[in-house]
Amino acid sequence: CVTLDVQAACRDTTVTQELLKEGFHRDLLVKVELGEDAGGCAVAAQMRLPPGIYVDPYELATLQQHNLTKAVLFPDVIDVEAPEYLARDLPLLLFLEPDARCSRCFRAAVPVHARYHRPEEGTEEALVVLESPEVLLCCCHSHLSAECWEPAQVDTPCSPDNTSPCQWHSAKYRPAYEESMLRVPVGLREHSSLVCALTLLTTGLCSGLILAAACKYGHFP
């Protein structure tokens, strides 16, 4: 009974993920409502982005310079041109900001981009599943409930502006949140022959026009 009471008390923390905008370029919005007061604590969401999406480190650096987002990539150098089948999971630590409308609520957004996928057979969409992030707290001047939070192995300061080491804690008990899914348009395998033929035809036509223009207007010794 004690275990059930502890789990019930710790299930108040909720996480919501939303993919805003349309197309290949989205904003990932993460909202957290804690089950207890965390005044003075840093709140972050630790997640692993699947190979189907990525965060552009150059875009992220620009946003950080303008104080528009606080996020840390591991590693901070990635291949933004790689297709989904050649990419790897991307660890991301997103620092959350307090929500003025709710004392226990925190939120943050980061731009994400979908990678190109292999053509599929019989479907024009590929599904990219985003698992629920891990909620982390770093409290330097207050104590967390030991029943709900346990030390986490996170080697990063409490904020991007602080270089001092910090002990992060993660939720020991939390509900199973629904996973978010991104639908990415893909080509159809049955159209491969048609696409190859049109590509060769277009390439040949353009090459011929360039060669004709070079012969007509070019000056050769």
UniProtKB/TrEMBL annotation:
<dbReference type="GO" id="GO:0005789">
    <property type="term" value="C:endoplasmic reticulum membrane"/>
</dbReference>
<keyword id="KW-0256">Endoplasmic reticulum</keyword>
<comment type="function">
    <text>Stabilizing subunit of the glycosylphosphatidylinositol-mannosyltransferase I complex which catalyzes the transfer of the first mannose, via an alpha-1,4 bond from a dolichol-phosphate-mannose (Dol-P-Man) to the glucosaminyl acyl phosphatidylinositol (GlcN-(acyl)PI) intermediate to generate alpha-D-Man-(1-&gt;4)-alpha-D-GlcN-(1-&gt;6)-(1-radyl,2-acyl-sn-glycero-3-phospho)-2-acyl-inositol and participates in the sixth step of the glycosylphosphatidylinositol-anchor biosynthesis. Probably acts by stabilizing the mannosyltransferase PIGM.</text>
</comment>
<keyword id="KW-1133">Transmembrane helix</keyword>
<dbReference type="Pfam" id="PF08320">
    <property type="entry name" value="PIG-X"/>
</dbReference>
<dbReference type="GO" id="GO:0006506">
    <property type="term" value="P:GPI anchor biosynthetic process"/>
</dbReference>
<protein>
    <recommendedName>
        <fullName>Phosphatidylinositol-glycan biosynthesis class X protein</fullName>
    </recommendedName>
</protein>
<keyword id="KW-0812">Transmembrane</keyword>
<keyword id="KW-0472">Membrane</keyword>
<comment type="pathway">
    <text>Glycolipid biosynthesis; glycosylphosphatidylinositol-anchor biosynthesis.</text>
</comment>
<keyword id="KW-0337">GPI-anchor biosynthesis</keyword>
<dbReference type="InterPro" id="IPR013233">
    <property type="entry name" value="PIG-X/PBN1"/>
</dbReference>
<comment type="similarity">
    <text>Belongs to the PIGX family.</text>
</comment>
<dbReference type="InterPro" id="IPR040039">
    <property type="entry name" value="PIGX"/>
</dbReference>
<keyword id="KW-0325">Glycoprotein</keyword>
